[in-house]
Design brief:
Layout (H helix, E strand, L loop, with lengths): L4 E4 L18 E6 L7 E6 L8 E7 L13 E4 L13 E6 L3 E6 L8 E4 L4 E7 L2 E5 L2 E5 L3 E5 L4 E6 L10 E7 L30 E2 L10 E10 L2 E9 L4 E6 L4 E4 L18 E5 L2 E6 L2 E2 L19 E8 L12 E5 L11 H5 L4 E2 L2 E7 L4 E2 L1 H6 L42
Parallel strand pairs: 8-16
Antiparallel strand pairs: 1-18, 2-3, 3-18, 4-17, 5-24, 6-7, 6-27, 7-14, 8-13, 9-12, 9-14, 10-11, 10-13, 12-19, 15-19, 16-17, 20-21, 21-26, 22-25, 23-24, 23-26
The structure holds fe (ii) ion.
The site of fe (ii) ion has 5 residues, from loops.
Length: 423
Amino acid sequence: MPYYFTLGQVPPKRHIQFRRPDGALYSEEVFGTEGFVGPTSTLYHIHQPTQVTGWKALYSTAPEYVETDTMRMRHLKTMPMRPKGDPVTGRVILFGNSDCEMSVCVPAEPMSYHYKNGMADECIFVHYGSGSVYSIFGTLQFRPKDYIIIPKGTTYQMVFEKASGDSPPNRFLVIETANGSHIIPPPRYLSKKSAQFLEHAPYCERDLRTPQLPLTYDEAGAYEVRIKARNSVHSYIYDYHPLDVVGWDGCYYPYLFNIDDFSPITGKHHMPPPTHQTFEAHNFVICSFCPRMLDWHPQAIPIPYNHSNIDSDEVLYYVEGNYAARKGIEIGSVTLHPQGIPHGPHPGTVEASLGKEWTSELAVMCDTFRPLYPTKAALGLDDPEYPASWKGEHYPKTAGTHHPDGEPKTPARSFTEAVDTSG
Ligand SMILES: [Fe+2]
């Protein structure tokens, strides 16, 4: 995070005596990044954070990529994915490389433990569901369309409220770093002198939701913290609740940003993807394509021109709204357009878009500067017709989707009219 925040009790100076009500000292922990020259927070624990009573390796998290030498456009229909696992074990990696991993999770059960990703910053985009992330920095109450940014090393537990009635199952997209870098707001949005969000930025401090109370759990027992490190998840056991922090301060902590609070930048002519940028990390960016007014030149073409991403692979996760530039796109669709071949509007969609003044599209994009590879799970969701879908006017030719775990459980919705400006 670019700015200072504090929650709970902290002493007036760093590294001085700070005592519990019983007279014992709180345990100070400096939570520093980049060798103590990057963003840092300082936490005060009731117990020593070093005390563990057991540890073991549980399972590997190394993704297995397939078709790594195949360059082709892909269209994954993820809506039929069945609930499985918890908000950590249920994550299904679809694409990745040595810089980032993208997964979709439809959790079936709650987490019975706390989790710490010691390898990566996580950007969790909540598609459906509400709940709380309980972390060592406090509580984040999330709702649909929230980005939850959880920096590397944060111990947390993600708890969903039970989906009610006709609500779709809880579901979220995860983009996490695989190269050790951190997910941050684009530096060009920030003042170089104060790190304050500048006037041209599409969001600012008021849009970010910081951790809140409750913060401290002073409870004894046997508590498991699962730690992801070295492409493996380890189980560590603590004899006290891992969220025993009474206070902290600094510039390194999790936060929320709802995509509806992104203020789109519009123009007389088609605006390029960088105007939609929301976050970045080393070798990839995350963008938000939100409902907005369209280009107002009297002869404007509001959907994107054909374009080649010479230096990047482009993944879009479609959240809601209409997409007429791309036929056959559904809620939960994931498209991959690789560097090496141009892409653009489907046949007939340019003419259909003329005169439109508004787009209702909502999508999250991740562009990577190195090729992305699919997993076996991605191939099971992929539509083999998609690469040829620009040739002819009848895509998709076949109805329905397939899934490696079986038949679709939820019928996917299809869009018939729209203006897709995401490209
Ligand atoms: Fe594109």
